Amino acid sequence: MMRTRTSSAAALLAALLLICGCAPTAGELAPSTPPASTPTHAPTGTTTPTPACGTEDAGGALAEAVRRLPAPFDEPDLADVRWAVQDGDETGYDSCAALSWVVVTIEEGTVSSPAQVALFHHHDLIGPATERAYAYRPQVTRISDTEIDVAYRFALEGEDNASASGRAVSRFSWDTQTGTVHRTGELPPTP
């Protein structure tokens, strides 16, 4: 008798959940929602939007960076050169991370064309990692949720662009106390 009441109560509860739209229907999986205080981190390059993280996807973040970053060149004769959405790298963007990034390059660029790392705090664009864009696409590595390393390439004296072997590494850290990013390490030499 007890088993029948329990089964009936479970069936009644399931029916009520289906009627109110609170339960998944056949073929539908119930989303697992983490608590707001612990955002879920998706693999780098993808995002799983949650209320704690925001909804900006990596493509939208890249497009925002292209729109808002300073021009790649200061020279008046290069004023028409623009950042390119189609050649950007959005794999480092994560709207749940305290510090993430996208890399943008110029339209119709070459291997030694300028590139810029745009930094994000969760889904908010912080701005460019450095005041000026440097030649060559940098390699960015996640160290932790709040730290990344950016390895810049540059041509040493006597090297051509294709065989550039110079390397300078900077670490960028999100400071939760001040709400700013700090850089330590090296940058490529300025020409």
What can you tell me about this protein's structure?
The protein has one domain. With 191 residues, it is an alpha+beta fold. 16% of the residues lie in helices and 31% in strands. Strand 3 and strand 4 form a beta hairpin. It contains two helices and nine strands; from the N terminus they run ααβββββββββ. The chain is globular and about 45 Å long. The longest helix has 19 residues. The strands form two sheets. Strands 1, 2, 3, 4 and 5 form a five-stranded antiparallel β-sheet that branches. A four-stranded antiparallel β-sheet has the order 6-7-8-9, with no helix packed on it.
Keywords:
191 residues; alpha+beta; 4-stranded antiparallel sheet; globular
Cα-to-Cα separation, first versus last residue? 87 Å
Helix content: 10-25%
Strand tally, please? 9
What value does the average pLDDT take?
A: 79
User: Which class of secondary structure composition applies to the elements?
Assistant: alpha+beta
N-to-C order of helices and strands: HHEEEEEEEEE
Basic shape: globular
Residue stretches low in confidence (pLDDT < 50, at least 5 long) are 1-51
Radius of gyration: 23 Å
Discrete helix count: 2
* Biggest sheet record: 5 strands, antiparallel
Strand content: 25-35%
Number of domains: 1
